[in-house]
Write a structure and sequence with these properties.
The chain has one helix at about 20-35; strands spanning about 1-5, 15, 40, 45-50, 55-60. The chain is an alpha+beta fold. The chain has a single domain, classed as SH3 type barrels, CATH 2.30.30. The chain is globular. It starts with a strand and ends in an 11-residue tail after the last strand.
Length: about 70
């Protein structure tokens, strides 16, 4: 699942392809909204930890597929 994380006072967002089931990722996001840090792993095994107080927004969803051709 693609996760976009907006961090306060940072112009660029963090985009990762998080590993795990949708319910595990949603549980981690809900825990972060309750005051814990957001702790996720990506498909390559890297770990991303963001303090709850620094979160601006979190966007969950599947990555958009690139379109090819004139009809795009």
């Amino acid at each position: 699942m693609e996760v976009k994380i907006g961090v306060q006072n940072v112009a660029r967002e963090i985009v990762i392809d998080a590993s795990g089931s949708d319910s595990e990722i949603e549980a981690a996001v809900e825990a972060a909204l309750k005051g814990e840090s957001l702790d996720l792993r990506d498909e390559k095994g890297r770990r991303v930890i963001v303090p709850a107080g620094a979160l601006g927004y979190i966007d969950l969803g599947e990555p958009s597929r690139g379109r090819v051709g004139f009809g795009a």
